[in-house]
Amino acid sequence: MKRFFVLMAIFLTIFHYTKAQKTDTLSITLENVKYPYPVKYLPVNTEGQDIKMAYMDIAPTIAANGRTVILFHGKNFGGYYWGNVIKALTANGFRVIAPDQIGFGKSSKPFIHYSFHQMATWNKKLLDTLGIQKASVLGHSMGGMLATRFALMYPEKTEKLLLENPIGLEDYKTFVPYITTDQQYQNELKTTAESVRKYYQSSYFTLWKPEYESLVDVAAGVTFSADYPRWARVAASTFTMIYEQPVVYEFQNLKVPTVLFIGKEDKTIVGKGLLTPDQQALHGQYKLLGKQTAAKIPGAKIVEFEACGHIPHIEIATEFLVALTGSL
């Protein structure tokens, strides 16, 4: 009888896990995540691999003003979190392009050398393929590093550079201990919904709200996938990309109109978990970094938001969208 109850307990545990997995599991190309607008794909060949880059191409909902904005998402996100920004921009006459970078979102997850230079060339190819001669580039978080690299490489394609709480305002490798991509891969494999939620609460938002759980659901949902080790390996590779490819020394070389949108309570540090609390307190202070960065960029403007963390377009959506459309 005791053996029976033990077997029943094991069965119920497996049943509940399987049920949870079936409910929560996401594929690593997010096929089961609904994006705010239809998704298309750009074929790309790199390092002997045929891959694809997902993107949304949304027409203006009023008379077109002839201008385009391309949106570069952050490291822990994809195009799915741009819905309200796209709606606001298209309502003001803009065409909007919102790609998932290779290695992210609905795009392919190849094992390749990841670099901001390569990503910039893929985004130029996307614009060229769509017949877009020039675009304003809005980059959030990691997308801010990419947007900066894009503007440095292709100033003729960049109408304006718009940076929303970009990372890379410091050179992380000067104060964050080095770890190999393999070590970071092992860290990525430990990701859970609780670890994601804890990080988002401590770094991204000043006050946690139930609606932010949808962001956790995507980041944690892929961990149940049988293909999650591939996702984790790519995530580790892009962590190394951020660590090894700073843009902070090149802000003074920008030659396009630039606006920084800074949530002043942001304390994001790439590799934060590798630092002691005392070390963490010395870095990631966006209330200082925003002004310091604006001072480095010729003619740059800065819009600062009180009581706001890493993602203004979600945490203070109305205020951010007013500032964004006004800056355009």
TrEMBL record:
Keywords: Hydrolase. It comes from the Bacteria. Residues 68-315 form the AB hydrolase-1 domain. One of its GO terms (molecular function) is hydrolase activity. InterPro entries: AB_hydrolase_1, AB_hydrolase_fold, AB_hydrolase_sf, Epox_hydrolase-like. The keyword Hydrolase applies. This is Alpha/beta hydrolase. It comes from Pedobacter punctiformis.
